[in-house]
Amino acid sequence: MKHSKKVLTASIALLLGVSGAAFGLLFSGNLLENPGFEVEGVDAADAADWTQVGAARTADTGHNTPDWSMYMTSFFDGQVDVFSGSAYQMESVEGCSPYGLGLFEASGWHNNDGSSGVPGLSVDFDGTTFSDSDTDVAGEPDGYQQMTLAGNIPPFAMMAKFMVSGAGDGVPADLHWDDVEFSTDCVYDYAKVSGKLGQGNKGNGNNGMYSFSGAIGTLESEACGAATPVGMLHINYKSEGFSCDVTPTDPVVYDDFAGTATLAVSYLCEIVDDEDLEGSAEIVLTQGAGGAEGQGKNKDRGMISVDADDDILDIEEASLDKGNVNLMQPAACPE
After folding, report:
1. pLDDT tens column, 129-138
2. Beta-sheet strand order (sheet of 145-152)
């Protein structure tokens, strides 16, 4: 069979971003078992490690693993004809993406044999779903085409459901899936801040002069290297009437003894009716004794300081009035 080189890509770049590198397996490698559907399950129509739904069964033809593929066709369930099917696998991503910094990539090769079958690819993280489908494949030349997904794993996701599907509109889908992949690049370390600081116009910290949100961290693939971390912080200078987006420019420097993270960053502050502020800054976050769960009156929530090119953005080191600083320092890198 001649394989088409057409590539169908759905790239989902969220707030924290996905690199522009060519699509391929991330740091974890392929997390899926039996990705080529070669290993038989309970019978020849069943693939080991996969849950098959509806009109999904294995077939003795394939892509780069040529012996077998997952085939969506049709069947009679005793009452009606079923013209769609799916196959899925569950994977744990617990601890992979605190604050939404972790990345995932998913892909698979589908072949509709020129029919009107509609292929679908999805990854669901605890109810947050990333998906793509090709709604117009009738009459495609024979051959396998790749479909891909990529993006940020939602914050603190526990499980991922990887699924391929095929649907027919009143006719058999007649659609194959093969050589599927799901990989992750999890968080190795992070520095997070959320909350408020300073006296607001009501004389307390409920409104605050400043508010903070976001996290910056290093992915496993870049651990112990010199790569720029991922993530973003947002600082609202309430008394000045503008806010700034802050992105990292160098690896985070952690001091285990002091309980601090020093962030070299660039900033962009969009100001209505005036020139925007752009430049570099150093932000120091200090973990409070209350840790990530620091709540309630008089809790030690952690501290923040900002030293920026534009003096108006400087914040002298001070303790948060609401929220907290949370640091996950990396393990020691080999010398």
Report:
1. 999 998 655 5
2. 7-11, 145-152, 103-111, 175-185, 69-72, 56-59
